[in-house]
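seq as requested:
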Amino acid sequence: MVDHLVEYTKEGASTLKSSHRGKSAVEQLLSVIVEFDARKDLIFNIRQNLVNYLQNINPTSKINHFDGEIVAKARKLDEAIAHLRRSVEDKASEILDIVGNNEKRTKAIEELQSTICQLSEKERLSFLLTRVNEFAQKLLLESGEFQKQFLEAEECNAFVLSADIRRSTELMFKARSPYQYAHFMTELCKDLESIVKEHYGVFDKFTGDGILAFFPDFFSGEDAGYYTITTADLCHKVFQEKFYEFRSSFVSMPTNVGLGIGIDYGTVSLVQIADGLTVVGIPVVYACRMGGAPAGKTLLNQPGYEKISRLYGEYCAFCKTQLEIKNEGSILGYDLKLNEVPYFPSPPRWMCGNEKL
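struct tokens:
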């Protein structure tokens, strides 16, 4: 079984590398997974390969295709990345061929390091383009100053949102087939990603059972907090709508499944891991922990509550609650609900033609 698992996992990874295949890649991958009888193997492979599929789609395919100028610039960026990758390979080969000339070798190494830095910078920009809306994509491709706020700032203040599907394992077992569950999850996460981007958030990643996103003050603007809690509210609604839409994919419709959403606020850093960027920091940790909230609930950690209640207290209802955290015990959280009082958040300043915040 272990040998077959390794073999099939490699086959699945190879399938996902050709991300232009779209759903057919998922179908091929899941047809392999179905051959496993053990439920634990099935769960692990479906979750892991959904993560791989959703995170390794060709970046250009996620650029706004309604704006020809953005597409052209994104393709130009892809071409520059491909050129730099070839250059790195060539320079590395040249270094290996240099024998007995320390000065020449040192110069070649310096050139290689410079090329690697250029490649890393462009790869980070390319990755970032897929994580924001089309208005930000356009400005990122046009403004070096706007790029620097994302790619060079060591730290920033941000709201962090973690959404997790509660009782997801039980829901997976109720799916009529692995493919149907994968299709449901793929479509759901596409909708959740769209909500984040439409509200000037940065979509960080698909986590396997949900999503992680953040709303930096410099990017999401002075109403970053309201965009965050509005995103949470809409994510709950979209989950229920999408779950009902895909009801024929399940043998029964449990009423106790839904999103648990956690929100926190504080200082975070955007760091490069492998070929992508991810947000790290204490607010990320506690947003994810608060994401263990019961289905349909949004919980704020203390710093997030202080910020939201101060700025938008008249537009929300709060209720103190406790959440049991593994290895930490019971901690205080604040159940959040938007009330019916209307609020019209201000767009980020860069949307008004001023990218220097």
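The two ends are 56 Å apart (CA to CA).
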